[in-house]
Each structure stands twice: as structure tokens, then as C-alpha cells.
Amino acid sequence: MPSLIETRALTAFYGDFQAIFGVDIRLDAGETVAVIGANGAGKSTLMRSIAGIITNRAEMILHRGEPIGALAAPDVVRRGIALVPEGRKLFSSLTVEENLQVGAYGRSVDGPWTLDSIYRLFPILKERRRNPATALSGGQQQMVAIGRALMSNPDILLCDELSLGLAPVVIKDIYAAFSKISAAGAAIIIVEQDIAQALKVADRVYCMMEGRVTLSGQPAEFDRADIHAAYFGAE
Ligand code: ATP
Q1: What ipTM was estimated for this complex?
Q2: Which residue ranges does the record assign to the ABC transporter domain (predicted)?
């Protein structure tokens, strides 16, 4: 069985600047995988590459064994891969509900996620559904961004730095949703700077540094020193 997502010697550039150097990761059905690493390690670039925001050579990214690295973002969404981008990128002129509905335009398939089930996942969004999305708190806006991605009923959910700038209690609520999203059938990649949080939720972890994977495996395989070295480099 091919993996849901596999990258093979993935490279990525911004103009002449190379941000990723030969990254191999995979995501299998039912898994939650975390990508950790310091600022600038290349985590967002990896997510943007899989999501088709940065295009690559086709064979560098495989979805169920098929090369998709050269596809544009809307085609990637149509294949069931949805990104919750860093910084949420909500539509400020739209209400909460309209932002959620936007997520359904790219792909119309039946699945567990509808406005109703997203409101059950995040009940506060139902209360706030007629408010402009940007009038919500940071944590609530993050819930809208997750809900918008779920509206395409993805098999694969890519989440970039969800907890950045949020209070611990809010982060806890958001992470509680992931077990439900996973139980509903999606495999998940979470980009996270908070190592403890990542190790808690992930089946497997990749650590990146300076555009390369420096450590990979199951959380129980690592001790603090391994992670410190992979995250910050040898001292
Ligand atoms: P962060 O936690 O800061 O988001 P990250 O691990 O997600 O870090 P990336 O955002 O992928 O890292 O950045 C990887 C490298 O690419 C960094 O050196 C960054 O400065 C550079 N970079 C990111 N976006 C761009 C861009 N749009 N144009 C040029 N360089 C970029």
C-alpha cells in the first residue's frame, strides 16, 4: 500500500534561495504526524509544497503513490488534501459561516464534515456564526480556519503552527478537536514549535533544521538530548 503522502528528496526554493534540501517524509492512513523545528527550519515551506502553493517537480510528492508535486493548490484540494495555513488567512469581510462555506467550494464530496458537524466540534462558532470572522478571538479564528479546511472533507489535513500566540487553555481545546478529526477518518500533519505538545499528540515526529530532517521516529524513541540536538544543532 503506498503512503497517503510521501515526499522524495523534496527541494523547495524562493527564487534563488533554497529553503528545503532533500526532505523525505511520509504520512500513512490513520496517523497524526508532527513536524517540529525552530523558526526558519522549513516546516511551513514543506506544508506549502504538499498543498501546492509552492510547486515542485511532480515526482517529489506522491499522493497514494501518484506524483502530485507539480499540481496547483486547487487541484491538490480536489484530491482531498487541505491546509490550515500559518496565520489563519481568514476572509475579513466575511462572517464565520461564510468563511466556513468557502472551504466547501473547492471540493464537493460527501463526508463527515458539514456546517452542523463543525458546529458540534466547535460549539462557540455556532454562537458566533453571523459575526465577522476577524471579530473573534485568536483561538476562535483558529477554529474557523480548521473548520474551513474540514469543509472540503479532506483525507489529509495539514495544520501549520496552530498554537502560535494562543493561550494554553485555548491550545488544549484545539488539540482536543484533533482526536475527533482523526477518529472521523483524516490523517493529519501538524507543524508545531511546542515540542511537548507535538510529542503528546503525534504517532510519529519529524524534526527539521535548516531545511533538512534531523530526526524522525515515534515519540517514545527519543530522549530530551536527541531532540535538543535535532532541534538546535550539536553544541
Ligand atoms: P516559522 O516557524 O518561522 O514559520 P518554518 O520552519 O516554517 O519557520 P519556513 O517559513 O518554511 O520555516 O522558512 C524556511 C526558510 O525559507 C527561512 O529561511 C525563511 O526565511 C525562508 N522563506 C520563507 N518564506 C519565504 C518567502 N516567501 N520568500 C523568501 N524566503 C522565504
Answers
A1: 0.95
A2: 5-235
